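[step 3/7] fold_predict: job queued, chain A
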Amino acid sequence: MKIRINPGTRRMLCLVGAMALGGGVPALFRPAGAFFENCAGDFVPPMVMLMLLFSFIDVKFSRESTGWSHLRIPLFMVALATCAYFAVGKLTGNEDFAVMAFLIGMTPTANAAPVITGLLGRREDYATVSVVSTNLFTAVALAPVSALVFGDALEIDTFSLAWKTMMLVGVPFALSVIFRNFMKPVAAFIRRWKFLSFYLWMVMLFTVCAQSSAYVSKQEHLSPTLLLEIFALAASLCAINFAAGYFLGEPRFRRECSQSLGQKNTMLMLWVGLAFFNPVVALGPTFYVVCHNLWNSWQLRHADVNETTIK
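[step 4/7] structure written:
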């Protein structure tokens, strides 16, 4: 008897499988763990840039690409980060948990969000504006907001963060404009291979999860109970972000705003956690990437099953 699996379910299983495989490889094969921990991160930015090029090749910006929700998103980020810091600190009595909540709240939109938004049949141009605006906002606002919350500002290199964002997003965007307007055969070639975005995302998920797993496996002092508590915190904040984004967005942008607020640039805050705090704090963004990608995989399944409701 042949079992039929609809395309949405197949996508979900592929993504969950990529995450599970990535999480298991470092534990089963230690040399691979060392590779992913030290080198694999170098492969992620080029993959993101290629995914964005596939996404941007058909994106044309207009006044309809933006909405007031692009202003509400960063305001909510600050509000959630501040409230979560004090609430989690009060409830748990654990400063590391409170800092995790703050960093997750202040995390900007993931660079891959336009790609996922496009796969969901929604407007990639809206998500692209969110990527640029929230990443620049975090680069500028993280130090002063941390000073207000912690009483001591983080020594963040604002220019460096802003430059990295502009390079990661700006280069594929500029190339897409050049190809679309002056090199139409190249643009047509890229469109033919646009379906590779999904497979690039799978490879990126595998890489990020393997890198995170290798990092977690080295923290021998962490108990399974503590790891579950951190995962629960990340999952709760992930649910809040996706839900709040839906209600913050204009009626025509509800799903786009939800994606922009929920899908986070966790690699940025993972670095902040390691650079300014400690390895335990860095686990918050590490687990968040698993949570938001589990939700993304479910959304893709739902999008294909109920295609008419999202287009």
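[step 5/7] annotate
The CA atoms of residues 179 and 194 lie 14 Å apart.
Residues 305-311 have pLDDT under 50 and may be disordered.
exit 0
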